[in-house]
Automatic annotation (TrEMBL):
Coiled-coil blocks: none
Annotated region described as Disordered, given as residue ranges: 172-193
Pfam families, sorted: 4HBT_2
Name of the protein this chain belongs to: Thioeseterase
Gene3D superfamilies xrefs: Hotdog Thioesterase
Amino acid sequence: MYPFVRMAKELWAARGLDPLPLTGTHVSHHRCWPWDLDIWMELNNGRALTLYDLGRIPLAMRTGLVGALRRNRWGLTMAGASVRYRRRIRAFQRIEMRSRAVTWDARFIYLEQSMWLAGGVCAGHVLYRSAVTDRNGIVPPETVLTAMGQDPAPPPVPDWIAAWIAAEDARPWPPMQAPDTEADASLARRAAP
């Protein structure tokens, strides 16, 4: 189940915090509860992605993005993610989450989030590309930033994000199409002894 109560708590707490520019870092603190665990008694990888919402949505609120979405009747969606899991998060461990936008291009806003354990140990990191949408499709980030009252010029794209964007552009879509059975049969006949 989605952590609605935890999200309400985070949104309530973020109301009293100073506004941030879109590239500002929102820091929040969370706990890994028993219902967040998988059968190996560690934070479930899918649940980790859900918990990242607990940092990302308050970030959107503090930057003014939520207000711009409401005023313009826009939506917000995730268009891709690249995740690294590096350390196990066990039941009752406290997590510090850091969330920020890094840059944007003509279609997407690129966000990064990380989970940190005691002693400054990074347990995981995710890079998202997010899109603001309306009934006609994707709203250009330049339009979104202007509606937020922020500078629409994007920060430089770090090399590692540029490489991910290039890899995503090269990735086939739709994926895993059904094979052409006639062509496959022809190849099989030629390969047969």
